[in-house]
Write a structure and sequence with these properties.
alpha/beta; Rossmann fold; Arc Repressor Mutant, subunit A; 2 domains; 5-stranded parallel sheet; 5 strands; 12% strand
């Protein structure tokens, strides 16, 4: 596959996992035509995705949720838990931003989600964002998903995330702002901190909560009751 990478630029290796051949082909063509990206594998089932992730160690997996053999949620869980593929970020693809399964995928370790009819430029921007270590969570859709999950029958109310009692008051403030959708620069402005200090606080919170990335911090903020659906802040992480 042809690569268009400038000298010194790191290529983003992408694994495509979708049971629809036409969808995979469309994404493959788009990524192959984009400088700095390449497709390292295509999977039509969840088990294939897990096997290929272990084999190719991609930077990012574009993961469909509803697949035969093994769904995208369990595939995500296995990929991020395996040391051979743990470096891969997972970007979940879904038909609707109200898909209840998206929340389960985020809990399993996905770094964000997109609807399948996202415009090509937005998809490529999302690949760069997630492969670079950031979460891709739009506050509005994320709040709706979590609100739906918390209202589901039999789901317990807010509960402290493991490690929450280890956070300082400042770190709780930072976690609340992350849950509200603020990025590091916005957190710095809100708390009167330098961007570097804000980033340091976010990293410490991630460490104390054993969070893989900001996506899991957002889930922890909602599920512990620090942020309530509808109270999200401006901006996206």
């Amino acid at each position: 596959m042809t690569e268009h990478t400038a000298p010194g630029e790191r290529t983003i290796d992408v694994l495509l996992a979708d049971d629809q051949h036409l969808v995979r082909s469309a994404f493959a063509l788009l990524i192959a035509a984009t400088p700095g990206m390449r497709v390292v594998g295509e999977a039509g089932t969840g088990r294939q995705a897990v096997a290929l992730a272990r084999e190719t160690a991609p930077d990012l997996v574009l993961m469909d949720i509803r697949m035969p053999d093994l769904d995208g949620i369990e595939a995500t869980r296995l990929i991020v838990a395996d040391e051979r593929s743990a470096g891969a970020r997972v970007l979940v693809l879904t038909t609707y931003d109200t898909d209840d399964y998206v929340l389960a995928a985020l809990r399993a370790g996905a770094s964000g989600f997109l609807v399948k009819d996202t415009r090509p430029a937005e998809l490529l921007a999302a690949v760069h964002t997630v492969a670079g270590g950031e979460a891709l969570l739009s506050p509005g859709p994320t709040a709706r998903l979590i609100a739906r999950a918390l209202r589901a029958p039999g789901v317990p109310g807010p509960r402290p995330a493991a490690g929450l009692d280890r956070l300082t008051e400042r770190e709780r403030q930072v976690l609340t702002l992350v849950g509200g959708g603020l990025n590091n620069a916005e957190i710095a402005d809100a708390l009167g901190l330098s961007p570097l200090t804000a980033k340091t606080h976010v990293s410490r919170v991630m460490g104390k909560l054993a969070a893989r990335d900001r996506a899991q911090l957002v889930i922890a903020a909602y599920e512990s009751g620090l942020v309530t659906p509808g109270a999200g802040g401006p901006g996206a992480s």
